[in-house]
Design goal:
The complex is a heterodimer. Chain A contains 15 helices and 14 strands. By secondary structure, chain A is an alpha+beta fold. In chain B, strands 1, 2, 3, 4, 5, 6, 7, 8, 9, 10 and 11 form an 11-stranded mixed beta sheet that branches. In chain B, helix 10 packs antiparallel against helix 11. The chains are: A alpha+beta, B alpha+beta.
Chain lengths: 432, 401
């Protein structure tokens, strides 16, 4: 009988139930979309902030520090340089997936048209393959993304994978102006160990000292200097979590942390723990945070997240008020029907349970539809703003489900009170 | 005519007062909608300004460099800085660099103004204190490692040079001047005692310098020279920055102003994304809220079909019924809109204080927009159910079907 009555309501009053389901769906979609965007906005903004360049630099440790720290007497450890073959170790650390780009650098001074010019060898869009303990790590990386502010006015960015070992170079705009170099020209430079003829792939404007540099690929520098595979610096760009109290404490001295704190610190993508892991992987290197980038990233991330959090809160309040409003008015509307039930002998509890069952079923249908609608909205936001999809978190589905049921129940409270107060004869008589 | 109008108002007032609980529900819906509209609207318009000043934590975005060898003079600096509107200028710091030695180690000294240095380089991590007076130094981490000094230690900077006839040596203590017994040339070891107040960590090239005050710089190097570089931090759009730079470079002969491309280009990329994020979020939330308001209004109206039927049975025209319901809706819309804009302003203010610790810019235009939008949405939301309601046969409605 109970189920027949419930089914009856849905069949006969489908349009009212549809209205409730629709509002619940809208509310649930706001909640789903905003919560998902809020949870993912940190990663998205962090990826955008990568345009500021690397936030970690890795440089060789001085030899004295090495032997003191690690107590090694190993002749093989190169201390003023990092070997190129060691760079792949970056892909093996715990937070390797958070490292978005990295590029080694080695520099020298060359003679061009009788004047001394700084020349830097690096990876542009290098394909790195690193084998360790039977696993193969692969990554395309280089300065193409680490120098996103470079304005290549003439020619185009050097494509390392296409030039295939040929001698190409990028020339800074100030130097190009000085020497009258334009894209497509060939320049000949002389280093300590030999001379090279470089084809100019493009002229870039960087707005700083680099405007007077020549950038080229590593093999060219190695032929010019005669010393093979030795890097003076690695620039690393990593997605990091903003520093909090634990990170500040760890930065002072990781050994002061308790065991649990240490595990938490090690397994959180703080800039300090990533630096620490890089040093573990490449013992002859010292990794430090570039404060200008790392600090600012943290600050901007924190602000954006807080902003999104508050906007989400407002939308949730709006959505819940909207839903509970409609539930209240929808139930009140049915006063007559409920009064009739009481008149034919239904007890208060039975009427309440009947009413709640109907409402909850409607809400669940609405919330399920709303969740998928919200998913679509979140993806629209992700693709319009960040050109990538928003990751859906399972937690959001749970939060939305709890929220909707709670809101629906709260929205029904005035209606339940009304049912209890209802005098069947008055309502049915219409004197209300 | 007059009595008709009186009756009209009486009916509206009576309907609002007697059906209090339902009217409150409808009003609440409108208020929530208007709050979201005006609150998010204010935030959307204020985000670029607020965020822009957050981005200043990346430090200077414009640098002045001298186009002549003497450096940038104080007058040129003041004139150049006056090109920026005071509201956008976050700060500027002049630097002068000189090479000398400490304990025979070559060290580059940078003279600067410590009172403004954290405005253009907020990312400096200082172990210890920033110098506050002459005779104090801030030492870069790399230099400190080489010298083996820590905060609180003392240092002697020595500027050694050969004394020539045209030099004014009256201010230099006698014991610093000595003659080379073999060649007979006069030398000077000019000393400056410094107390290290802090060690500077940045992870960048700043760690390779020792920073002292400009006065100490003038004393140690016996000359007042212009600045080698001036860092300027300005919270403004990239286009504005570019026009400031052009104007300064062309109007001041001794100064060449440059954009720090790394900072400005990246900032505009990220800021555009952030702004469009807030925009699209606002748009989505608004559309959904409007639909919520509309469905609530529709539900409130739909439940009054009996009343509509009764009035029709008493001989009311469809137009007058629609007119009355619409007026009620418009009144609700206006009233809810006013309350909502006030609440929205409060919300935006709270967000601004919480997130950016500064007050939100009040935009009066948003209040009428929020009110008009609420009136339109409630109006349309009422109109649709009423139009279907007035079509019904009064007899059927009154019978309870």
């Amino acid at each position: 009988m109970f189920f027949r009555m419930v089914r009856g309501t849905f069949v006969r009053q489908w349009n009212k139930m549809l209205m409730i389901a629709l509002t619940v769906a809208l509310g649930a979609s706001i909640a789903t979309a905003m919560l998902n965007v809020m949870l993912d906005v940190g990663d998205k903004i962090n990826a955008e902030l990568k345009t500021y360049g690397s936030n970690i630099t890795v440089v060789p440790q001085s030899s004295a520090v090495i032997s003191k720290l690690y107590d090694v007497d190993d002749e093989d450890i190169q201390t003023d340089y990092i070997k190129e073959e060691k760079i792949g170790e970056l892909l093996t650390i715990f937070w390797a997936n958070n490292i978005t780009d990295f590029a080694p650098e080695t520099d020298t001074t060359v003679t061009l048209d009788g004047s001394e010019v700084p020349l830097v060898g690096t990876w542009f869009n290098h394909h790195l393959e690193f084998k360790k303990k039977g696993s193969v790590y692969q990554r395309d990386t280089g300065i193409i993304n680490l120098r996103s502010w470079w304005d290549v006015g003439e020619g185009e960015m050097l494509n390392e994978q296409a030039v295939d070992g040929d001698a190409y170079a990028m020339v800074g705009v100030e130097l190009a102006k000085d020497k009258g170099i334009s894209a497509g020209d060939t320049i000949s430079v002389k280093g300590e160990a030999g001379s090279e003829t470089l084809t100019v792939a493009g002229i870039y404007e960087s707005g700083d000292d680099e405007d007077e540099y020549i950038y080229t690929t590593l093999p060219v520098v190695q032929r010019l200097t005669g010393s093979a595979e030795l890097m003076k610096k690695i620039e690393v760009s990593a997605i990091t979590s903003p520093d909090d109290e634990l990170a500040v404490k760890a930065a002072r001295n990781p050994s002061l942390l308790t065991g649990d704190e240490y595990d938490l610190w090690y397994c959180t993508a703080y800039v300090s723990s990533i630096c620490f892991q890089i040093q573990e992987a490449i013992p002859e290197a010292s990794a430090t945070a570039v404060r200008q980038i790392a600090d600012s990233e943290g600050k901007i991330l924190e602000k954006t997240q807080l902003l999104m959090y508050l906007i989400t809160l407002l939308s949730l309040i709006g959505a819940t008020l909207g839903i509970s409003n409609l539930v209240t008015s929808a139930v009140m509307e049915r006063a007559q029907e409920l009064a009739l039930l009481k008149a034919v002998g239904a007890r208060n509890g039975q009427v309440t349970i009947l009413m709640l069952t109907e409402i909850i079923i409607t809400a669940i249908i609405g919330a399920a539809a709303g969740y998928f609608l919200g998913y679509a909205f979140a993806q629209v936001i992700g693709h319009t703003v960040f050109s990538s999809s928003i990751e859906m978190s399972g937690m959001v589905a749970f939060i939305v489900a709890v929220l909707i049921i709670a809101v629906t129940l709260i929205g029904s409270i005035p209606a339940i009170r009304m049912v209890l107060r209802l005098r069947a004869s008055e309502v049915l008589h219409g004197g209300h | 005519m007059n009595s008709k109008r009186q009756m009209f108002f009486k009916m509206i007032v009576a309907s609002l007062v007697r059906r209090r609980s339902r009217m409150i529900i409808a009003l609440l819906a409108v208020v929530v909608g208007a709050t979201i509209l005006s609150g998010l609207g204010l935030i959307y318009f204020d985000v670029p300004r607020q965020m822009s000043s957050q981005f200043r934590s990346y430090g200077a975005n414009i640098i002045f460099m001298p186009s002549e060898t003497e450096g940038i003079s104080e007058e040129e600096l003041v004139q150049g800085i006056s090109e920026f509107p005071a509201s956008e200028l976050e700060g500027y710091t002049p630097y002068r660099y000189e090479n000398t030695s400490i304990h025979n180690l070559p060290i580059t000294f940078a003279g600067t103004d410590f009172s403004s240095v954290l405005k253009t380089s907020p990312y400096w991590h200082i172990n210890g204190e920033l110098p506050v007076s002459d005779g104090q130094a801030l030492v870069g981490a790399k230099v400190a490692e080489e010298l083996g000094v820590a905060a609180g230690d003392s240092l002697s900077a020595i500027n050694s040079f050969e004394v020539t006839e045209d030099m004014d040596m009256s201010n230099i203590p006698d014991y610093e001047i000595y003659k080379d017994p073999e060649t007979g040339e006069t030398f000077c070891d000019h000393m400056l005692d410094l107390k290290v107040t802090g060690i500077l960590e940045t992870g960048g090239s700043e760690e390779e310098y020792a920073y002292i005050t400009l006065n100490d710089m003038n004393y140690l190097f016996l000359s007042e020279r212009g600045y080698d570089i001036v860092e300027v931090s300005v919270a403004s759009s990239q286009d504005n920055l570019a026009s400031y730079v052009d104007r300064i470079s062309s109007s001041l002969e001794g100064v060449s102003a440059k954009l720090v491309k790394r900072v400005t280009a990246s900032e505009s990329t990220v800021l555009t994304k952030l702004q469009s994020l807030v925009f699209i979020v606002t748009a989505v939330v608004l559309v959904l809220t409007m639909i919520c308001v509309a469905t609530t209004m529709a539900a409130v109206i739909a439940e009054r079909r009996r009343e509509i039927g009764l009035r029709k049975a008493l001989g009311a025209y469809n137009a007058s019924i629609v007119g009355q319901f619409l007026s009620e809706g418009l009144f609700l819309g206006a009233f809810g809109g006013i309350i909502g804009s006030v609440l929205g302003y409060l919300f935006a203010q709270i967000v601004s204080m919480q997130v950016f610790s500064s007050a939100i810019t009040f935009r009066p235009l948003l209040i009428p927009i929020a009110i008009v939008a609420s009136v339109i949405v409630t109006g349309v939301a009422c109109l649709i159910p009423i139009r279907s309601a007035v079509e019904v046969d009064p007899a059927l409605v009154l019978k309870g079907e």
